[in-house]
Design goal:
Blueprint lengths: L13 H6 L1 H17 L4 E3 L3 H4 L2 H10 L2 E4 L2 E4 L11 H36 L35 E2 L8 H10 L5 H14 L6 E2 L2 H19 L6 H20 L8
Antiparallel strand pairs: 1-3, 2-3, 4-5
Length: 259
């Protein structure tokens, strides 16, 4: 759709001031109609009464904004410097746009046809005997140690049952490693702790190993607890002994001194 253009200096142009506001109302309405109808700025006498009055048209002619010729009114320099749309230019632009759309539709239609053929071949709709290519290959299972291609399942963790007991081998092993530990009593503590614990941390894949580590830590705690500790009196005595030894050394120098 073409546009009727109005310059931003129009408001106080001398010709506009000379024509007056009423005549300029006709000028704007007539310009819009001429752009829509592609008349190149020609306003026939038959359309003038629908846009304004003869007096207003005469005022535009007197101001130099319109001219009168061949039983019609004409805008002065309608397309000077390309300021307003002409029929030839608008029709050329429309024809070019139509051609662009035609080419676009043809290219799009060709693309859709090519896609349809490709889809038909890939999915077997054309030949009926073509097996579709899988979207992803089946995963290859890693070979098992026995070489038969079987996957060895991972052992899942479980919660400790209150009735659980370590194996005889595990008990004998810990009796040898931690002879000072009351295994029966520590086992009760172990079971109470793990059966009351919640969450993912309360599941273990090997409860015998967990039990052995528990007993080893207990043995380490007992060993640290049984280490002799110096009392305050012993520490004070040690200080006194060191002081006395230093005093004695000062009073009785070593026989080796001065030699």
């Amino acid at each position: 759709m073409p546009w009727f253009k109005v310059d931003d200096n129009l408001a106080f142009h001398p010709k506009v001031l000379a024509a007056g506001n009423a005549a300029m109302g006709l000028w704007v309405r007539a310009g819009s109609w001429a752009a829509q109808q592609l008349t190149d700025g020609v306003i026939p006498d038959s359309i003038l009464p629908s846009l304004g009055t003869r007096k207003q048209a005469d005022a535009l002619v007197a101001a130099g904004l319109w001219t009168r010729a061949d039983g019609a009114w004409r805008f002065h320099e309608w397309n000077a410097d390309g300021r307003q749309p002409t029929r030839a230019r608008v029709e050329a632009d429309r024809a070019a746009a139509t051609e662009r759309q035609r080419k676009h539709r043809e290219a799009r239609g060709s693309s859709q046809r090519d896609k349809g053929v490709t889809d038909g071949v890939s999915h077997g709709s054309v030949t009926g005997g073509v097996t579709p290519t899988p979207t992803r290959p089946d995963p290859t299972r890693p070979p098992s140690p026995d070489g038969e291609g079987k996957t060895v399942p991972r052992k899942r963790g479980t919660r400790l049952e209150r009735s659980w007991q370590p194996s005889a081998e595990t008990v004998d092993r810990m009796r040898a490693e931690a002879p000072g530990i009351d295994l029966r009593r520590e086992h009760e503590v172990f079971v109470d702790y793990w059966t009351s614990k919640t969450g993912q941390a309360a599941t273990k894949a090997d409860w015998d190993a967990t039990w052995r580590n528990w007993m080893r830590r207990k043995a380490d705690d007992v060993a640290k607890r049984d280490q002799p500790r110096s009392t305050a009196a012993q520490r004070n005595l040690s200080v006194v002994e060191r002081f006395a030894a230093r005093e004695q050394q000062e009073q009785y120098p070593s026989a080796l001194e001065g030699m």
